[in-house]
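Why this split exists: single-chain examples teach little about how molecules sit against one another. For that reason, every record in the complexes split bundles all components of an assembly together and asks for one structure covering all of them. Below is a record exactly as it appears in the raw files.
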Amino acid sequence: MSTVSITLGEVGASLALIAVAIAVSFWRRAELEQDIALAVLRSFVQLTAVGYVIQAIFDSDSLWLVVALLAGMVAFGAWTARGRAKAVPGATGPILLALSVAAAVTLGLVLAVGVFEAEPRYLVPVGGMVIGNSMTAVAVALNRLADEMHDGRRQIEAMLALGATSRQAARATVTRSLRSGMIPLIDSTKTTGIVFFPGTMVGMLVAGAEPIDAVRLQVVLLWVLLGAVALAGLIAVSLAYRGFFTAAHQLRE
Amino acid sequence: MLRDVTLSIRSGSTALLGPSGSGKSTLLRLLNRLADPDDGVVRFHGTNVCELDPLELRRRVGLVPQLPAPVAGSVADNVCFGPLLHGKEIDPEGPVRQAGLDSSFLERDASRLSVGEQQRVMLARALALEPEVLLLDEPTASLDSAATAVVEDALGRLRGLSLVIVTHDRAQAERLAERTVELHEGRVATA
């Protein structure tokens, strides 16, 4: 198998496309030049740093370090998702639990089934994918939950007035929020291989793996991600809706 | 915002009258614990409402909201919704007739009715719980005069339960209520 080696000069040359992005933004006055520059800088610094961290973890071969890294990803993911769900009262706990459970259950399952061995070189990238996709789904679902609780306040209070519990009054809202968190990944899973090639498959093909091997691994990962996203979304919305209600089944002001 | 309100609402029909922002809807929401006061006590038959099960209290003290908020489904689905929450199956025809609609409405999609008809569905839905008290929050504010007359007629025919009607319309208060409590800037002006 041939390996891919990329020099810093080659990385630098790819900045030409960034220049195109900045030129487009400047030309159409989209005012995204600073954001693009920041995104380029952050992606380089963050990925380089994490590259060294992952290298160190692979070298040490310590599962404890893997757990510590995944915990760090969960914490950062929860912080990011929290930022997008500011209008949900007390969302931090539900988000942390959602990401942790999604990561633990899905990684546990792929290990139990024997898809991967319990080694850092599998657990770190797969864990990162699971946590990252779960974070996005949870952020979308909670954002939608906040919007729906705000827009549907009259409807929900009318149900409470009939003697519905907060759970009964919020049921339809919670379901719609969960759907909105899951739909993007379901849609991208449906179109995979036609509209876009997922990253793992691309990485394996570029690195010289047999296409069928790359496809099988990608299929496993897509299905694992669907499960993780469903689990994370369900936990997050099922717990977070409670923040909108008091113990006496009243909507908070 | 309500301040220094001391008030006893007897059985029968009572109107809470006042301009918008005078606190009358807030007061109504305290009566079935959709909200709690920061300070002070609300009693129902002498018991602090905070000591009662809020779900049971809301069955006994029903509310018709200012704007219709039907659940998805037919008129019958809406009318049966409250009793089902409390584990009871009912015949929706009785409450629908009490609210001034005929039984041909039962299978119609509630969301496709006129606002006036939807407001009567809201009344039927609250009556289906057989409440002791019915709270009405500006029940005709969004209706034209013809629909207002129909709703007022249905309210006038109700027997065996007390009404608390929030309104900004003094004439309506006089038509519907035996007593009027007037609120002004969160305080009782006259009772």
